[in-house]
Specification:
- This protein is an alpha/beta fold.
- The chain has a single domain, classed as Alpha/Beta hydrolase fold, catalytic domain (Rossmann fold, 3-Layer(aba) Sandwich).
- It is built from ten helices and nine strands.
- The strands form two sheets. It has a six-stranded parallel sheet, sandwiched between helices. A three-stranded antiparallel sheet has the order 5-6-7, with no helix packed on it.
- It is globular, with a radius of gyration of 17 Å.
- This is Alpha/beta-hydrolase.
Amino acid sequence: MAESTTILLVPGAWHSPDCYDLVAQQLEVAGYKTDKVHLPSFSPLNHHLDFEADVSQIRKQIESACNQGQKVIVVAHSYGGIPSNEAIKGLDLKTREQSGLPGGVSHLFFCCSFIIAEGQSLISAFGGNDLPWFMISEDRLEVKPATPDEIFYNDCSQTQVDSAIAALGPHSYQVFHSRCTYAAWKDVPSTYLYCLRDAAIPISVQEKMVKETAEGFGVATQVVDASHSPFLSKPEETALAIRRSAGEDI
């Protein structure tokens, strides 16, 4: 099973896809192929006004794996879940099979990510207000996190925190206002990884998205006692959770 599955790793805002390296190593040892997405809205030369470039990049990499006959598990962290949902439209396994095409997205794995309905954006999911730790440029094109050590890495070692902060980059702010037109979790089997110590998306908000927004769509849940960055603080547990979502009995 593993060799026929590609796990596509989509980071959240401000993060390079290299943040997934510890998890990717675990998955590759278990026999899976992995691929990482560099979001165009992360540290761009010119800031993007919507999430279309992110959607396009994710979709391109999904299609590449599908065309090799691979089942694709999309692992999305934080903001990454929003363009990932949009990118999956028409690329799920069932639709591809019905069209006589190889491969397809077999599972969507939310790593303390956003589950939002059609017509919603990241900002609207928070009631239309910027979060207090958003540092937004005067032209409202760029956003940085004010206290990443507290918000993203509150259970990491100081060495991990220093390394992670050094790897952060500015993000295109306006992508947070892009509204989804498709909710992949309605059509694709999905798993949500609850992160109990998350200071960016508190566990109460995570649970509300799963139990209210996605009510009735059978989103499975797993739990890790970690911050907003379980791929750094709990890479083994995160990799095992992803493998379970792939159907492994472990």
